[in-house]
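Researcher: We're teaching a course module on how sequence relates to structure. For the next exercise, students receive a sequence and then see the predicted structure as tokens, so they can try to spot secondary structure elements on their own. Here is the exercise chain.
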Amino acid sequence: AAHGGSAGPPAPERVLFPPTFSVSEIKNKQRRHFMFLRWKQQQRKEKLAAKKKRRKEREALGDKAPPKAVPKTIENQRVYDETTVDPNDEEVAFDEATDEFAPYFNRQTVPKILITTSDRPRGRTVRFCEQLATVIPNSHVYYRRGLALKRIIPQCIARDFTDLIVINEDRKIPNGLVLSHLPDGPTAHFRMSSVRLRKEIKRKGKEPTEHVPEVILNNFTTRLGHSVGRMFASLFPHDPQFIGRQVATFHNQRDYIFFRFHRYIFKSEKKVGIQELGPRFTLKLRSLQKGTFDSKYGEYEWIHKRREMDTSRRKFHL
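Model: And here is the predicted structure for the students to work with:
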């Protein structure tokens, strides 16, 4: 009391971590997790504050505000490919006028597709083939019973089929697609993944109608991508029936080809509603072969070699 009374224990100071400190150095798992969450929260707050500050600055500057920065993505940082197609390239125009798909694009042939499977397919693959046949007009499903592809191809040519699609499966799941353009090729081998049948798609629309769909091909920019895009385009009749409002989309992103099938409806002059009809799947090109399917003596235009080709995450081939 003589010394003015004791002030009690001193208030604990806030411990500041040294700048080189890492959360991963904390040995206690629960404490480490707690500190990590706090750190993430702090990061989020700082990011939000910076965003607000930028927005206020833009509003203050009005028309004089600098243009918004374009975020860096793997796509826009892509390594330049010397085979990227220029729309005005005369050589490309000549190639397209004389390649195997030219009769289709000149409206001389009408697509007629045979869809078949690997030997003795299971339920899921069978249903997938049936649903694919409702997407591609003038396509016929044939269930293979031990017949070799080399024997099927001459029969297809004799019956005026323009393309052959083979759906392969592994452990009852569709995992591969072979697309062969008849009668002279080329043949593309794709790895197939993320297959969703119609009943597995949320908020799906009613069954597709028999109208010829429109086809959208996105981001097929190189010579190889152009060839693959033309292969997909030639599966569908050249004149879409717009009254059906159905669209088949092949979207290439980082060499993965995403397939979606939609129906659209104009709600107003500016608003469009879309329903997914299904099925959906993802393809990755494994090889492109000259001529029709020949696993033994086939001449390959392009083969995906992972160790040699996948050296950079920003290098794409399609």
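Model: If you want an answer key for the exercise: The chain has two domains: 23-55, 95-310. The mean pLDDT is 86.
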